[in-house]
Write a structure and sequence with these properties.
2 domains; mainly alpha; disordered N terminus
């Protein structure tokens, strides 16, 4: 007789698991869930930023030369620790970026907009990097990107079922 060591049923994982909360492009995401999950990502990003800065500082501080064997070993150890912190923070930053992308696209789905609107937002957000625009145009485009992002927090989702699924608020009340 086989033992089942799974502590959660499949329905629990599919509804409340981290994968479905942060790493899926399917479905819709209401304003409250979007705000909470973006806040969690923001806090995690601050922690990772601190790790990244710590790694940079450790690598740079350990760059001082030393003539003794103990100093050289200390330099190697601190460089390894710093590089480990840098690489770990970089990997987790990439995970946070992917997660933020899925949240934004699911929020757009709640507004009955396709994910291609996210590409429009990215173009607006990164427009200040384009050398062809003047300062005022860059500022206007970047401001428009910020306003559009804030509107994701404010606009109410489509009532009822849309082409991306059922209303997440209706699912919460059942």
């Amino acid at each position: 007789m086989a033992m089942n060591y799974n502590l959660y049923s499949e329905s629990d994982l599919s509804r409340d698991g981290i994968k479905c909360k942060y790493f899926t492009f399917k479905g819709r995401l209401n304003r409250e869930a979007f705000l909470i999950r973006c806040s969690v990502l923001y806090v995690l990003g601050l922690i990772l930023g601190a790790l990244f800065v710590s790694g940079v500082l450790i690598v740079n501080i350990s760059a001082f030369e030393s003539d003794t064997l103990a100093g050289m070993l200390s330099h190697i150890l601190s460089s390894a620790i710093g590089l480990f912190l840098l690489s770990t923070a970089t990997v987790f930053f990439m995970i946070l970026i992917i997660s933020g992308l899925t949240l934004a696209i699911r929020r757009l789905h709640d507004l009955n907009l396709s994910s291609s609107w996210f590409l429009v937002w990215l173009a607006l957000f990164f427009s200040p990097l384009a050398p062809m625009f003047g300062f005022l145009a860059k500022a206007a485009l970047f401001s428009l990107a910020i306003i559009t992002f804030i509107s994701l927090f404010c606009l109410k989702g489509t009532k009822g079922v849309n082409k991306y699924g059922s209303n997440p608020l209706d699912e919460q009340h059942n």
